[in-house]
Each structure stands twice: as C-alpha cells, then as structure tokens.
Specification:
Layout (H helix, E strand, L loop, with lengths): L1 H37 L8 E12 L6 H5 L7 E3 H13 L3 E12 L2 H15 L4 E9 L1 H7 L4 E10 L12 H7 L2 E7 L7 H4 L5 H26 L3 H9 L7 H6 L5 E2 L2 H11 L9 E3 L1 H4 L13 E8 L2 E2 L7 E2 H13 L3 E10 L1 E3 H15 L4 E10 L1 H4 L6 E4 L4 E3 L3 E7 L1 H6 L24 H26 L3 H7 L4 E3 H7 L4 E2 L2 H11 L6 E5 L5 H6 L3 H13 L3 H12 L3 E4 L8
Length: 584
C-alpha cells in the first residue's frame, strides 16, 4: 500500500511538473511573440517591398496571437490599410528601390482592388519600378499587376480572364420541401435580398440592375487594363470570351497580356539586376507585415488629427466587436465628436447593410458629430442599404467607381413553420387576452389584418429611409424615390444621380476632410483602436475558433450556413443588400 501511495504521489507530482513546464514554455513563447510583434523593423539599403497577394483582403486585419501560437494565421487576412500604407511608405523612403508583386490566391472585391491599383499608380510617379510575377494570375491580381513595368508568368502557368458573374442561391424550393414559408414584406421594386426566399430565379427587375452594375464594374477593369497594357478593350473581351486561362503561356505572351515567361527562381535574379547588387543575398525583401512598424518619412508632428473610423461588416444591434454594432459605433462616434484634437473624421463604410433600427442609431450619431466637425464618408466595396443609411448625412461622400451603393429600401421576413410542424406531428393551440397577443408566432401563417399592419410598418420605415437620405443629400423625396426602390448602383452611376459627391479612395477622403477642416498639417489616426498583443490574446476567442471549425467541417457549404445564421440573428426589419452577392 505504501508503495502504491508513493507511486501515486510521484505520478501526481510528475504531472504538476510537466504542466508547470508546459505553462512556463507557453508563457515564454507568448512573451517572445509579444516582443516580436512590437519589434520595429529597420529598413536596409537595396530593399524591395514584396506585396505577397494571398488570402482574404479586409479593410483592416487584426492579428490573433492564439491562432499564431497554434501555428495558424487568422484566415490569411490582409488589411487594406496595411497594404496602402506600405505602398505609400515605399514611395517616400529612399531605401526602397521598387515593388515586387507576388500574386497568388487572393480574394478581394473590385473596389478594394482599385484602391490598391490607384496607390500603385501613384507609387510609380516616384520613378521606382513595379514588377509582377505569378504562377497563375487570377482576374483580380492581373488587374492589379497590369500597372507593373514588367509582368512575368510561369512558363507552365496561366492567366484567368473571364468577365464577371454573380450566381445567387435560391432557397424557396428547399423551404417548400421542409414545410417552411417565408412571409415577405418589402418596399422597393429592386429590393432583391428577399428573392432567394420567395422565388426560384431572379426577377426581371433584379436581372436589370445586376446586369447594369456588373457591366459597369467590368468596364472599369477593362478600360484601366487597356490603358496600362495598350491592348484594346475589344481584344480583352475577346480573350475573356475565349477563356484565356486555358490557353498556353506562350499564347498569353503572344497576346501581350504578359511580358516574359520565367520561373520564380529566375525572378530574384531579375530583381537583383534591377537594383544593381552583386548577389541575391544582398537584396532585402520587406513584407507588408514588416512595413507596419516602419514610420512615414515625413510624419506630421501636428497635434491636429483626422480620424479614420473603419466600419466593416453587417450592421447589427449590440456592442460586440464583430461587424458594425450600433452601441459600439455610436460610442466611437461620440468619442471622436468630443475629442478636441480630432478636427475631422473620415467614416470608412464597407457594408451591405443590416438592421434598420441599428442603422438609425448610427445615423443619429453621425449627425451629432457633423454638427461639431466635418465627416467625410469613404465608401469601400459596399455601402448600400443600411450602409448607405449610415452614410447619407455626411458632409461629403466619396466612392470608388466600382463601389456598390444605394439599395435604398427595406424588408421584413417572418417564417411560418406550420407545414414543418405538421410533417413531424406537432400541433398548437392558443388562449389570449387581446386580438394580437400572439402576433409573430411562427407556428401559423399571418392573418390578412396582421399582414396589413406589418406592411404598413415596413412602408413607414421606407419613408423614414427616404427622409433621412433626402435631408442628407438635399434631394427631394419624390426624386429620390425614383432612384431608390431598393436599386443597387455602382459608384459611377451613383455620382451621376447624386447619391455620392466624388469618385476616389480613402486618401481622397482624407484630403477632402482636411480641406473641409481647413487643415494643412495633421496626423491621421485610425479607429477603433486595434487590440494589442495581450488584449487580443485574452479577448474572447470562442467565436473565431468555432467559425474555423465549421469552415473546415462544412467546406463550401459554410456560406449557406452563414446566410441562414445571419437571418436567424438579425432583426426582422432589414435594410440590406442581397445576402450572397459574390462577383466572380
């Protein structure tokens, strides 16, 4: 017995020692990672900025130290803010000789791609070189790379140029089979977000608007590639219609879409010769991550600040950090309003909308800030429906030509699961004190009087939306109604009809804000503040880990799950674009 107890105590002690060592090693690793993350990168002579285009582009990317500790990056995210800042720093820093675009599997919407492309064009004004290479050029990466002085392609590679399409998924047939009816209430001929739940194909009105904005976005891409590569738009469309990605690399070269065929091992030799160094080892390559800790050469010492407030994702109620939550962003806008050092605000909106109620709360906070200082909206890939609602009151609105905006309209959806409950043998009864005491129950269809009440509520919401936009844009409600009706417009089209003031990117918005605030010298600070290493480490990681597990388990079906999850979690009255606009 004594021997047993000794063995037990020894085993327990051993476990504690192992656990202690494990936590010690983890703590040392975390401290090391923290020091590494805050260590300032020092640029050396003969440096080339490498834009490694892989992963998913978002307006801002937040590092996740827990995922890094597990040996995994946060969904391969790249922050647009980091990319633009890296290019701008590279332009002004004499230690950087040029930019090397290494294009891979890169997911980004057209407006963000244009933002990067415009920054690359501005970089070229410095006289420094831009070189691009890929094994396979995606359409978006080729659009970016077309500004390069030299476009290089793997001899066995290809170039994907095929045009734009959007292929929505319709759920009505599935819902019919399981016995679920989505009771739809909407205002707006073009308000197509509800179509997947009430139709089995696109309406004629929806096809009209989608065709209009897809062709306009495609025209932006082909016109700019045509100018950079000196290839006619007609020829580019011919290559797209012939599916250039299935052509031999030699044919792509012969068509002048690329300049040379070379393996990646030869690219560094080429870059070495460009900057006139003896050995490849003498050449320094700085990544986007390296550049985040490099200061701007001519950074302003002024106390005056232009704040850039980033709002990206679905608009929802609450105060969480995921997406655009009303309480969080109202609080951020109030802090910027009351901060005397902040002289103007750029509100960067990248959202297809969401809760109509949450949008109203943010709209109010924007108006209160505008009463004290200028606020300029910079529209990203999307600033539509609720995204336009929170933008319309700004001092000035600036969008990219291929931004999707407008979609002024609202809708409501109530499920009726009576058919499903009957299939599984469930039945319900009710006792109530008042006529509408059981209003909103999903186990029966709505009565006609209930439908009339809700439709009237939706129409009042639409009228309020029109009023907000009319007051903000100085357009009569009657005129606005003719261009509203839930219709989605590109930035180009929105400029013509008065929904935006100028075309441009976030830097143009910052300049406009400085002009409105009469500032010559100023600093630019970004908000909400990114979490530091330990804040990020000890913040709630549950949602990200759960999402990652679901993506790995569901694969391509995750997007359908995500749409249904969003519908479940959001208010029944929505001001938003279609749930699954994906431009391919």
């Amino acid at each position: 017995m004594k021997d047993f107890l000794k063995s037990l105590v020894a085993s327990i002690l051993g476990c504690f020692i192992v656990l202690g060592l494990f936590f010690l090693i983890m703590f040392i690793s975390l401290v090391g990672m923290s020091l590494t993350s805050t260590e300032k990168y020092v640029l050396k002579d003969n440096t080339i900025l490498t834009l490694k285009l892989e992963g998913v582009l978002t307006d801002r990317a937040q590092e996740n130290p827990l995922m890094a500790l597990l040996g995994q990056e946060t969904e391969g995210q790249i922050g647009l803010d980091d990319v633009l800042a890296s290019i701008k720093k590279a332009k002004e820093n004499e230690k950087i000789q040029g930019i090397y675009i290494n294009a891979g599997a890169f997911s980004a919407a057209p407006a963000s791609l244009k933002e990067i492309r415009d920054e690359l064009l501005d970089f070229k004004k410095s006289g420094k070189f831009v070189v691009a290479y890929a094994d396979v050029y995606s359409q978006g990466c080729y659009y970016l790379s077309s500004v390069a002085d030299k476009i290089m392609l793997n001899p066995q590679g290809n170039l994907d140029l095929h045009g734009f399409a959007t292929v929505p998924t319709f759920y009505k047939g599935l819902l019919d089979k399981v016995g679920v009816e989505m009771q739809i209430f909407k205002v707006g001929t073009f308000k197509s977000a509800v179509e997947p739940f009430m139709l089995d194909k696109m309406s004629d009105a929806n096809k009209e608007q989608v065709s209009a904005y897809l062709n306009d976005i495609w025209a932006t891409l082909t016109n700019e590639v045509s100018e950079s590569r000196n290839i006619s738009v007609e020829k580019l469309n011919t290559y797209a219609d012939e599916l250039a990605m299935f052509k031999k690399a030699e044919d792509i070269l012969a068509a002048s879409l690329v300049d040379t065929l070379i393996y990646e091992t030869g690219v560094k030799e080429y870059l070495k010769n460009l900057i006139d160094v003896k050995d490849v080892e003498d050449m320094n390559l700085a990544s986007i991550k390296n550049m985040t800790s490099v200061s701007f050469t001519n950074e302003s010492k002024s106390d005056d600040v232009i704040a850039v407030l980033y709002a990206e994702g679905n608009i929802t109620d609450g105060s969480g950090k995921e997406g655009i939550t009303s309480k969080r962003f109202v609080k951020e806008l109030e802090k910027l309003k009351n901060n005397d050092k902040v002289k103007a605000v750029v509100f960067r909106v990248n959202s297809g909308g969401g809760s109509a109620y949450a949008s109203e709360q943010i709209w109010k906070a924007v108006g209160e800030l505008k009463d004290k200082k200028p606020i300029v909206v910079s529209m990203g890939d999307y600033a539509a429906s609720g995204g336009y609602y929170i933008s319309c009151l700004a001092s000035k609105i600036i969008a990219q030509p291929n931004t999707l905006t407008g979609s002024i309209g609202i809708f409501g959806m109530f499920p009726n699961v009576e058919g499903l409950t009957k299939k599984v043998g469930l039945s319900y009864d009710v006792v109530k004190t008042n006529q509408y005491a059981d209003f909103g129950t999903i186990t029966r269809p709505m009565r006609e009087d209930e439908k009339a009440i809700l439709q009237n509520y939706i129409e009042r919401g639409y009228d309020l939306f029109l009023t907000r936009c009319s007051d903000g844009r100085g357009i009569s409600k009657e005129s606005l109604d003719s261009i509203a009706q839930g219709r989605v417009w590109t930035g180009n089209q929105a400029l013509e009809i008065g929904l935006v003031d100028e075309l441009g990117g976030i830097n143009d918005a910052i300049e406009a804000a400085a002009e409105l605030a009469k500032l010559e010298n100023y600093k630019v600070n970004n908000f909400p503040k990114k979490e530091d290493f330990f804040e990020s480490l000890f913040s709630n990681q549950k949602e990200e880990l759960t999402t990652k597990a679901l993506k790995e388990y569901l694969g391509s079906d995750y997007e359908h799950f995500k749409i249904l999850k969003e519908i479940k979690e959001q208010d029944f009255v929505q001001a938003r674009m279609p749930y699954d606009i994906v431009i391919k």
